[in-house]
Amino acid sequence: MWLVALLVAIWWSILAWRHWPLAVSLLAGLLPTYLLRFRIGPLPMTVLEELILLTTAIWLIKQYPQPWVNLRSRAKNWRAYPLSTEIVLVLLVAWLALLIGGNTTSALGLWKAYFIEPIIVFILFWHVPRGTKYVDFGYLCLAGSLLVIGLIAGYQYGTGDLIANPFWAATATRRATSVFGYPNAIGLLVGPVSLALLGYLIYRLKKTKQWFDWPNLLLISSIISGWLAIYWAHSEGALIGLAAALIVLGLLANRWSRLVILVVTIIVGVVIWPRPDYQTTIEQKVRLADLSGQIRQSQWQETWQMLRDGRWLTGAGLANYQTTVEPYHHEGIWIKSADKKAQPTWQPLEIYLYPHNIALNFWTELGLAGLIIFAWLWLKAIIINLVNFCRHRRQELAWLSWGLLGAWLAAAIHGLVDVPYFKNDLAVLFWLGLAMTMWIKENLVKNKSDHD
């Protein structure tokens, strides 16, 4: 792996030096490279981190001495980054969580991979020239990444090959994992990204008035393959989040999309109503009364007991959840069946890395302050994209906000039962989403002023 990391470093350094904005855009399509890992002495690294740090180093060298001047004093052309107050608060809270977590090697790794480097990507994005061609390239890189993920998932689901877990590889219980280590990782990345790409596709169609050019074909293929990948992974949280976000987007788009939603709702109702087994399954899912739902509820109860017992303010600290929650952990629970006549079955439980709930994840890792800051950022992103679209829907650029609104909603809904941030690719995606949200807002306001 060392040789691969070295070759990547040489290639990326040449690319970033010759065309730095292109390298920043290309980062969007290389998020899964965090799966390629190596070490520099005692320090664990991923190829994604390597790319981010090299891009940053080359930017600092090429822009010297301006970044250093800006740190010492405000230059004439200096302007604060958007969300600068929130960024400072996130860095402060993350540093405190690092100390609370014991300042261990694992905590340091999470601190740099989930906070420092993603925020660096946010800053780099704001130094890319303001032309839309780099934004276009970033979206198309994301589409290419999604297409690869979907094709690999399709091959796995059709053959059972390349799935490391024998249970997921078996025909009766098959779940695709694509390039990742577990099925839900597909939904966590693909769900939000596919909706952002859907918004970009509509933006292109309205701007270029062309259906059949290669970028559109790539976008359509990647969106379809991404949605199929979520199905092949049987990621129920992602499917529900995707469906709910699509309903919201359809209600906002136009009267034809609202009519489609009405027709689909009627068809689904006609299919489900005569089938008591379908109704029971849906009821079990909604009440979290199925196997995974009961496991989640047990996990949340343990986490809540831990927080209530003197940790409600500080949380457990970075990379310290498993150790802190262990005294409150149940070795197993009795799973109740949907059939009331059936006897409960014993289900052993492991201690997961995170509580698998968007609020509890941030609370346990970053404390109450971290929960509040990230809830504010998530809500702010949703509101800004909603306002962007509703106020400026006559501008093509507003459709990018429409897609991003769906992405933020899908991630939040899936996050009710999963971990939509604490993963290398998802953390970078979060801050890229914030950067795009603020960039679109700035450009929509500017375009409106120019037209006025």
What is the structure about, briefly put?
Helix content is 70%, strand content 4%.
Description:
The chain has helices spanning 2-18, 20-27, 47-62, 66-72, 84-100, 105-125, 132-159, 166-169, 184-208, 214-233, 236-253, 255-272, 276-286, 291-311, 321-325, 358-392, 398-414, 424-451; strands at residues 37-40, 43-46, 332-335, 345-348. The strands form two sheets. A two-stranded antiparallel sheet has the order 1-2. Strand 1 (37-40) and strand 2 (43-46) form a beta hairpin. The chain is built from 18 helices and four strands. Helix 7 packs across helix 9 (184-208) and helix 16 packs antiparallel against helix 17. Among the domains are: 2-79, no CATH class; 97-127 and 289-452, no CATH class. The protein is mainly α and 452 residues long. The model has no long low-confidence stretch (mean pLDDT 91).
Mean pLDDT: 91
**Helical content (DSSP H or I, runs of 4+):** 55-70%
Shape: globular
Sequence stretches where pLDDT stays below 50 over 5 or more residues: none
Main sheet overview = 2 strands, antiparallel
Order of helices and strands: HHEEHHHHHHHHHHHHHEEHHH
Kindly list the characteristics that best describe this protein.
452 residues, mainly alpha, two-stranded antiparallel ribbon, two-stranded antiparallel sheet, 18 helices, 4 strands, 4% strand
Could you outline the blueprint of secondary structure elements for this entry?
Elements: H1 2-18, H2 20-27, E1 37-40, E2 43-46, H3 47-62, H4 66-72, H5 84-100, H6 105-125, H7 132-159, H8 166-169, H9 184-208, H10 214-233, H11 236-253, H12 255-272, H13 276-286, H14 291-311, H15 321-325, E3 332-335, E4 345-348, H16 358-392, H17 398-414, H18 424-451
Antiparallel strand pairs: 1-2, 3-4
